[in-house]
């Protein structure tokens, strides 16, 4: 089996579970750190000819990460493309199992069972806090409806203000974020790399939680430790 992955989190899941199966991945596929495969460009602009040249048995993609025209071009070239949809934690577990089976796994990996167990063991939040969750600035863009990251935060006791917005990633002016009634700002380090010096200064009257974007937005082996890592970062914002 020869697989090209166009999704960083799925790249990590496949590489950890089925070493040697991946022959290509995007430039943004940074895990595992020692992944030695052909790079095929970005998630939004993969080099279709480079993917085709690798003669993969399967190309793994995601409806949010990848553009439909690129996936159509790969299909037109005769490649099999598996497109995932991940907008909640349960859906992530289902899709991960489907992808790994399609890549040749004959059993569920241990890390997937551990991830499900870690989230199942998470106690009900003692209280819920309301947050705004920017994922980009210039312009400010936040989590909206039906997002995987939003579902994870809800399980950790954080309700984000724009959860019922018509758009999944709406652009909201900063002045509206500041008057949204939020008790907290959650700032992940990807896709925009928010840091202690870039982000919190825009919200001077609110506690800011700087969180790992990989643990908030990736669905793969990082889900095993995500409840602990994210929970610790959220608690730190209120100390």
Describe this structure in words.
With 239 residues, the protein is α/β, with parallel strands linked by helices. The protein has 2 domains: 3-108, 3-Layer(aba) Sandwich (Rossmann fold); 124-236, Rossmann fold (3-Layer(aba) Sandwich). The chain has helices at residues 8-17, 48-53, 68-76, 89-102, 110-120, 148-155, 174-178, 213-217, 226-236, and strands spanning 3-5, 22-25, 38-39, 58-62, 81-84, 129-132, 134-136, 141-142, 158-160, 184-188, 208-211. The longest helix has 14 residues, at 89-102. The chain is globular and about 55 Å long. The mean pLDDT is 96.
The run of helices and strands is EHEEHEHEHHEEEHEHEEHH
User: By helix and strand content, what is the structural category?
Assistant: alpha/beta
What is the third-level CATH name, the topology of the largest domain?
Rossmann fold
Mean pLDDT: 96
The tally of strands reads: 11
User: Between the first and last Cα atoms, what is the distance in angstroms?
Assistant: 50 Å
Number of helices: 9
How much helix is in the residues? 25-40%
> Assembly state here?
single chain
Total number of domains? 2
Strand order of the largest sheet: 3-2-1-4-5
Beta-strand residue fraction? 15-25%
* CATH superfamily grouping of the largest domain: Nitrogenase molybdenum iron protein domain
- Low-pLDDT stretches: none
Specify Rg, calculated over alpha carbons.
18 Å
Largest sheet: 5 strands, parallel
CATH class of the largest domain: Alpha Beta
CATH architecture of the largest domain, please?
A: 3-Layer(aba) Sandwich
Shape: globular
């Amino acid at each position: 089996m020869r697989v090209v992955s166009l999704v960083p989190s799925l790249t990590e899941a496949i590489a950890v579970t089925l070493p040697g199966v991946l022959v290509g991945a995007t430039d943004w596929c940074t895990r595992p750190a020692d992944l030695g495969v052909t790079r095929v460009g970005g998630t939004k602009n993969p080099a279709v000819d480079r993917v085709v040249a690798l003669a993969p048995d399967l190309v793994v993609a995601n409806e949010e990460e990848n553009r439909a025209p690129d996936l159509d071009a790969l299909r037109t070239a005769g490649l099999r493309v598996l497109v995932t949809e991940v907008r909640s934690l349960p859906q992530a577990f289902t899709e991960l199992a489907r992808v790994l089976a399609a890549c040749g796994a004959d059993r569920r990996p241990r890390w997937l069972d551990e991830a499900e167990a870690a989230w199942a063991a998470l106690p009900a939040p003692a209280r819920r806090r309301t947050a705004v969750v920017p994922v980009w600035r210039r312009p400010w863009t936040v989590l909206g409806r039906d997002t995987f990251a939003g579902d994870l935060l809800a399980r950790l006791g954080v309700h984000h203000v724009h959860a019922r917005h018509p758009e999944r990633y709406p652009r909201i002016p900063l002045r509206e974020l500041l008057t949204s009634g939020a008790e907290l700002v959650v700032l992940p380090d990807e896709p925009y790399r928010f840091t202690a010096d870039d982000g919190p200064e825009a919200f001077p009257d609110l506690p800011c939680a700087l969180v790992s974007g990989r643990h908030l937005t990736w669905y793969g082996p990082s889900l095993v430790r995500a409840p602990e890592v994210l929970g610790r970062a959220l608690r730190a914002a209120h100390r």
